[in-house]
Write a structure and sequence with these properties.
The complex is a heterodimer of chains A (221) and B (253). Chain A is mostly helical and 221 residues long. Chain A has helices spanning 2-40, 49-88, 91-98, 102-137, 145-153, 158-184, 190-220. In chain B, the strands form two sheets. A six-stranded mixed beta sheet of chain B has the order 6-7-8-3-9-10, sandwiched between helices. In chain B, strands 2-1-4-5 form a four-stranded antiparallel beta sheet, covered by helices on one side. Classes of the chains: A mainly alpha (221), B alpha/beta (253).
Chain lengths: 221, 253
């Protein structure tokens, strides 16, 4: 039963968020490439650095952080509303009376699903951002294809990928637990449910940014 | 049997229940009645273990429910069924999945055994053949019956019903009342019904407990309602002039 619910959540979080993650990551990579190319204009910095900067910027920061901030808005608010709605419609009471451990049944599958799926989404986002950078800079003539690829292959530090996954796991945990907490303990009616949903997003976003800073200090210090 | 002993409940400074002691007997439909705000739902939730009392004890047969560990509470709750005011059916599940939910959670039955059990329960509430429908496709009365089917699928020893007739027409209300009563008698269940439906009181009130401003104002059964001289009971049951005339003519006859 828990496994079935976990798989359902994985589908909802993963497949349900794929389009928005694809869109955002492609454009982030594209914008990063265009803006860096603009800043390089007239300097002595080699143009292949565009590929290098887009790669590291997306892997270290943009893919995990922006993706999770967006997911906090999409997935987090959805979780808070779903669980809060169940609380208001007495679904949670019904489960409690049956003897179901509601926290375990309702929250744990969401947390596990998010911990599995969100890092995958972040990895996809990183890849697509890099591709977005390519699409924006090469056909526009800022840089040649060979230079962009040379940039991608320069100064690669595998540890950065590790850092990306540390961030992805941490942010996934934050956004699901905060959102589920807000929904689980909602009281009152529709207005309170709306507030809980908003709080889920706002608190998740603040904690994600704070965690981002702490992880940056801890892992790069 | 369930015994509520000296139950007190406060929310902040507001005392909602004051020294409530009631025995709810097995094989009988035990009613908690009273005006809105009398504390009926709070008492039912305390008995069902969804709220903790400020003071007092709740006994399920020989077990003091409030002294149990979380694990023991879950074991006791496997013997409990509850019908909620709004049915509380999981709207993302079909009728069959809703009724099967407790079986999926707590039993190791095979798929076929579970289906048989679900079909038996649906037949019992006259909803055979509605397995694949979603709650949104059912009427209020049908939703209530699915709720009853779900609450009896594990053969509970205790059944709690919170306003089972709210929002239903009189005919459907009687159907639901009779269904709950027959299930109670057939399976010797301790059933506690929270209601302010007068049809229920007069039809299935084996044991009636009237709450008034958080206190137990009257105890008795449906046969004693007419003849009781309890002012609070008379004002509550026979609230309209029409019902008062009916009572008077019944007493004269």
């Amino acid at each position: 039963m828990y496994w079935k619910e976990t798989v359902r959540q994985m589908h909802d979080i993963g497949v349900g968020s794929l389009i928005i993650v694809i869109l955002i990551s492609v454009f982030i990579g594209a914008v990063a490439a265009v803006q860096f190319a603009y800043q390089l204009d007239g300097t002595l910095v080699p143009t292949y650095y565009i590929g290098y900067v887009v790669r590291d910027m997306t892997i270290i920061e943009l893919a995990p952080t922006i993706t999770c901030l967006v997911l906090a808005g999409k997935v987090g608010s959805n979780m808070a509303a779903e669980i809060g709605g169940m609380r208001q419609k007495e679904h949670i009471d019904a489960m409690e009376v049956m003897g179901v451990n509601t926290a375990a049944y309702l929250i744990l599958p969401k947390v596990i699903a998010a911990l599995v799926v969100i890092p995958m989404l972040v990895a996809i986002a990183a890849f697509l951002s890099i591709m977005g950078g390519y699409v924006a800079s090469v056909p526009a003539g800022w840089i040649t294809s060979a230079e962009y690829i040379q940039g991608l292959r320069s100064f690669f530090v595998p540890y950065n990928v590790f850092m990306m996954f540390v961030k992805a796991f941490t942010f996934a945990y934050i956004l699901t637990t905060v959102s589920c907490y807000q929904g689980y303990y909602v009281k009152g009616g529709a207005i309170e449910l709306g507030k809980a949903s908003t709080n889920a997003v706002v608190i998740s976003d603040i904690l994600i940014l704070l965690a981002d800073y702490l992880i940056a200090i801890l892992l790069t210090g | 049997m369930i015994r509520a002993k000296n139950i007190y409940k406060s929310f902040g400074d507001t005392e909602v229940l004051k020294d409530i002691s009631i025995d709810f007997e097995a094989g009988k439909t035990n009613l908690i009645i009273g005006r809105s705000g009398a504390g009926k739902t709070v008492l039912l939730k305390i008995i069902a273990g969804l709220l903790d009392p400020t003071k007092g004890e709740v006994w399920y047969d020989n077990v003091n429910f409030l002294e149990l560990t979380k694990r023991q509470i879950r074991e006791v709750r496997m013997d409990v069924g509850m019908l909620f005011q709004g049915s509380a059916l999981f709207d993302f599940m079909t009728v069959e999945e809703n009724v099967r939910f407790p079986l999926d959670m707590f039993t190791n039955l095979t798929k076929k055994e579970k289906l048989n059990r679900v079909n038996n329960c649906l037949e019992r509430v006259n909803l055979a053949g509605n397995n694949e429908k979603y709650p949104s496709e059912l009427s209020g009365g049908m939703q209530k019956r699915v709720g009853i089917a779900r609450s009896i699928v594990l053969n509970p020893k205790y059944l709690f019903c919170d306003e089972p007739n709210s929002g239903l027409d009189p005919k459907t209300s009687i159907l639901i009342d009779n269904l709950i009563r027959s299930i109670t008698v057939e399976n010797n269940i301790t059933t506690v019904i929270n209601t302010h439906d007068m049809n229920s009181v007069m039809e299935v009130g084996d044991s009636i407990n009237l709450l008034f401003m958080g206190e137990l104002a009257w105890k008795g059964n449906k046969d004693e309602v007419l003849t009781s001289d309890n002012q609070i009971l008379q004002e509550f049951i026979f609230a309209s002039p029409f019902l008062q005339r009916l009572r008077d003519s019944a007493l004269q006859a």
